[in-house]
Design goal:
Strand content of chain A: 5-15%
Number of domains of chain A: 1
Number of helices of chain A: 6
Oligomer: homodimer
Strand order of the largest sheet of chain A: 1-3-2
Structural class of chain A: mainly alpha
CATH superfamily of chain A: Winged helix-like DNA-binding domain superfamily/Winged helix DNA-binding domain
Order of helices and strands of chain A: HHEHHEEHH
Helix content of chain A: over 70%
Radius of gyration of chain A: 20 Å
CATH topology of chain A: Arc Repressor Mutant, subunit A
CATH architecture of chain A: Orthogonal Bundle
Distance between the termini of chain A: 40 Å
DNA sequence: CTTGAATATTTCAAGCTTGAAATAAAAGCG
DNA sequence: CGCTTTTATTTCAAGCTTGAAATATTCAAG
């Protein structure tokens, strides 16, 4: 076998090992987040994600905007917004001029609840990545961004 | 506000941004894997994960070993092994001397199917992380490992 | 041996997730 | 205007996931 081919195969194995390590890292942190959200606030990560998206868009988001923003299916956000609405944390509003569409927003109480969640969330992430200093964070962010450049295809054409 | 506090807060925000980027990267790759597994092999990522664990342990794994290896709940692996068994890819064997326990194994067909899955899987990961060269892979793996050191607490005491 | 604690696994309800089908409304077009 | 196509959302079945409860078995004392 030629040297070039050997090199390519070893690189492929190294990428696989890196993938498994990245997956372990993010899955572990995500599991911590889920547990913390449940134990400290009796809520879930998907609910948090939807609330975070709505908090960033106080003018409201259409259901379809929400699903593409979070990269989950339409049917998925329907269910989560349903539950947030039942709990009084979100609401749906009609879109003037388009009776098919709805925008989802946080209620005032939803906003208050989210602010508390977000503060804890930042602290949990800070703890989870606490072993990394400023330079390491910058390096890892740069490499993750570079990896994305191929992964996404072309999100920002 | 003191300089030290400002620095800590900015570091915390940077960790949060890094977390969001890592999550986007791994979620994106995972979504690709799920789609590829479904379209090319009509299977799912959890089934693949269980098969991979069993493939690495030809002697078989107890249900509880499988669940701690994969870091998912006991009830979860019960269901997945049930489905793999229905499909003829895995089987359960009694453990001599302990009638509570069972070991799960791949069948011969399960092994064949897995070998094909694994080859494609490696190719998909190679493509997904293809933007990273050998040095970048090594750097990222090192940083992920360092981040883990805090995350895990003490897995290897 | 018998009783009670510990261990291995399954069952279960609830929620998340998806892709596909169903509904409903808007837009384009002849 | 009617008719088709596109767009926005919901509904649905199937599978994944969890934590807690239920079963079954082993182990440890007495």
């Amino acid at each position: 076998m030629g040297r070039a081919k050997e090199k390519a195969e070893s690189l492929s194995k190294d990428r696989l090992r890196l993938w498994l390590r990245l997956l372990k890292l993010t899955s572990g942190i995500e599991a911590d987040l889920r547990r913390n959200l449940r134990e400290a606030h009796d809520t879930t990560l998907p609910r948090f994600d939807v609330m975070a998206a709505l908090a960033r868009h106080p003018e409201g988001l259409r259901m379809s905007e929400l699903s593409s923003y979070l990269r989950v299916s339409n049917g998925n956000v329907t269910g989560i917004v349903d539950r947030l609405t039942e709990e009084g944390l979100a609401l749906r509003m009609a879109v003037p001029g388009d009776r098919r569409a709805q925008t989802a927003r946080l209620t005032a109480r939803g906003r208050e609840v989210f602010d508390r969640l977000a503060a804890d969330h930042e602290g949990w992430i800070d703890a989870a990545l606490g072993a990394l200093g400023a330079a390491e964070i910058a390096t890892m962010a740069r490499l993750a961004k570079r990896a994305q450049s191929r992964e996404d295809g072309n999100e920002h054409p």
